[in-house]
Write a structure and sequence with these properties.
mainly alpha, 8 helices, globular
């Protein structure tokens, strides 16, 4: 077997193994999902009050408060870096939120699944190999666009006018980029700096641990 071909094969096998979930990945993703779910419980009231105030000011602008509800998928993808991590963390967080009394009941889970898929798609597009600030922001935007699409039908937004839908989409994109994407990236780096993520690539990159 030629050396170059053998080397390429070994690298391919290593890449494939690196995408397999470990026990610690499952444990940390689950803890992360529960923690974000508790954040959602708080945001279901504080965030919704902000949403309502902004929407009263300009219909559709309430979307500026939605980004926090999208952060689970971004954090999951940035920290775990495995296929399905963004979807798992966002869906688990939504489930915790529903079980603890979300005012949107089972629709919370539907939203979590779709929002998680939106972020997951961005990480997939980069083959789970890039996790910088730009990718985090794009993942937040992907989750926001997914949320907007779901709400066209789940919340009946499709019956709203083009003006509302446009403002709402722009507000969601901004919120997803900042409150989910950029904030998620900053939180990941802050957590990594403590050493809590040393068993993950996200932690080793920040602390310079090989």
């Amino acid at each position: 077997m030629p050396f170059t071909y053998r080397k390429a094969l070994v690298m391919t096998e290593k890449s494939a193994r690196s995408l397999r979930w470990r026990v610690i990945d499952i444990v940390v993703a689950s803890v992360l999902g529960v923690a974000v779910g508790l954040l959602f419980v708080f945001w279901n009231f504080a965030g919704y009050a902000w949403f309502s105030a902004m929407d009263a000011f300009t219909p559709g602008f309430g979307g500026i408060a939605v980004g926090v509800w999208l952060i689970g998928g971004v954090l999951g993808g940035l920290i775990i870096r495995k296929p399905g991590a963004a979807l798992y963390v966002e869906t688990l967080a939504a489930t915790v939120s529903m079980l603890l009394g979300s005012q949107w009941a089972v629709e919370t889970i539907y939203s979590g699944i779709i929002q998680g898929l939106g972020a997951e798609l961005i990480f997939l597009l980069f083959f789970y190999r890039r996790f910088g600030a730009v990718i985090a922001v794009l993942a937040g935007i992907g989750s926001a666009v997914a949320a907007w699409t779901l709400e066209l039908f789940l919340s009946g937004n499709i019956e709203m006018g083009a003006g509302f839908l446009t403002i709402y989409l722009i507000a969601l994109i901004i919120s997803g980029a900042l409150l989910a994407g950029l904030l998620g990236w900053l939180l990941t780096r802050a957590l990594a700096a403590t050493g809590a993520l040393n068993r993950f690539a996200a932690g080793r990159e920040v602390r310079g641990v090989s």
